[in-house]
Amino acid sequence: MKKSYYLFNPGRLSRKDNTLKFLPIDEDGIEGTPKYLPVETVDNLYVFGSLDTNSAMYNFLGKEHISVHFFDYYEHYTGSFMAKDYLLAGKMLIAQASTYSNNKKRMVIAIKLVEAAAFNMVKNLRYYNNRDKDTSASIAKIEALALQLPTATDIPMLMGLEGNIRISYYEAFDTIINDFEMGNRSKQPPGNEVNAMVSFVNSMCYTLCLDMVYHTQLNPTISFLHQPGERRFSLALDLTEIFKPILVDRLIFSLMNKKQIQAGDFDKQLNSCLLKESGRKTVVKAWDEKLNETIKHRSLGRHVSYKHLVKLECYKLSKHILGIEQYHPFKSWW
Predict the structure, then answer these.
(1) What number of other Cβ atoms are within 10 A of residue 295's Cβ?
(2) Distance between CA 99 and CA 115 in Å, rounded?
(3) Which of 4, 23, 130, 170 could make an SS bond with 44 (beta carbons 3.0 to 4.6 A apart)?
(4) Which of 163, 161, 196, 202 is nearest to 177 (CA)?
């Protein structure tokens, strides 16, 4: 079974037959113990330190359909190396571009994305509201804003409502999370521990959605809620709206409230707060475990992993774009 590997240390990546060799190198140039990764086991590489390799290696990774995702010093996603778009199809590309160009068709999808995101946010808030954490004020605000979503006539109006929904949602984080405070959302760089967690795990969710889009016939550069060009792969941003409450926020609440992540896992400076390597390792381990968890899918009647849920979302969106069946975004039922 293929899986993701996370490279936290600077190092050199090379190939030996069908095995990837990663040689850690510290700041003083001292080489560590090499790690060997059989290529048939590698799905993605997540790079958090500097990576020394060459074009021959990227040619090899491309042939093996291994993606490499890069993050900067502040743990923000900066870009990806993706293999050749082997699944892209002309019919889908034309239909996707046509749907984007038609404001009415685009708005149908965009509104559904925000409605599903709001629904999943409220689901989280109700869970904690039933466990002696009063999130009722945020629930009421989000539900009132969600009623206005069908009235949105263009993307800027819809994004304004979405922004207000998310602000109302984040206001409840200080109630839900023990021992830490979020305050206002801050990103570049994150201003405190909760913001650092949100930024880091949001980046992981974005790369997951990008990877699942890449494994379908959808074009990752043509989106419906976010403007294409905002980032290169803006369709992944659309999908993250649905899955952030389910995958990102629930993971953060669990890790922090169960004290699996503590104050010592952060490097807090005057104007920034970042996860230390110990914290990042704890988070990515929990992230991988979460993605491999399974739930009983209502429509399919079988158990599927959280990771597969994202791919199923891509398939549903594809069918809608091709006119096969109406798109119904994923909404949590638990």
Answers:
(1) 14
(2) 19
(3) 4
(4) 196
Mind listing the pLDDT tens digit for each residue in 86-129? 566 789 999 999 999 999 999 999 999 999 999 999 999 999 99
Residue with the two structure tokens 């600077």: 10
Strands 42-47 and 3-7: parallel
- Phi/psi for 3 (5° steps) reads -145, 170
Q: Which of 46, 45, 49, 78 shows the shortest CA–CA distance to 64?
A: 45
With bands split at pLDDT 50, 70 and 90, how would you rate the model's confidence at 231? low
As a whole number of angstroms, the distance between CA 110 and CA 103 comes to 10
- Of 72-76, 84-88, 202-206, 259-263, the least confident: 84-88
Q: Which domains does the chain have, with CATH numbers?
A: 3-71 (3.100.10.20), 90-321 (1.20.120.920)
pTM surpassing 0.70? yes
Q: CA 142, CA 155: separation in Å to the nearest integer?
A: 19
* Centroid of chain to Cα 318: 19
As beta bridge partners, residue 45 has 5, 68
Q: What is the mean pLDDT of residues 156-176?
A: 97
3-state secondary structure the chain: CCEEEEECCCEEEEEECCEEEEEEECCCCCECCCEEEEHHHEEEEEECCCEECCHHHHHHHHHCCCEEEEECCCCCEEEEECCCCCCCCHHHHHHHHHHHHCHHHHHHHHHHHHHHHHHHHHHHHHHHHCCCCCCHHHHHHHHHHHCCHHHCCCHHHHHHHHHHHHHHHHCCHHHHCCCCCCCCCCCCCCCCHHHHHHHHHHHHHHHHHHHHHHCCCCCCCCCCCCCCCCCCCHHHHHHHHHHHHHHHHHHHHHHHHCCCCCHHHEEECCCCEEECHHHHHHHHHHHHHHHHCEEECCCCCCEEEHHHHHHHHHHHHHHHHCCCCCCCCCCCCC
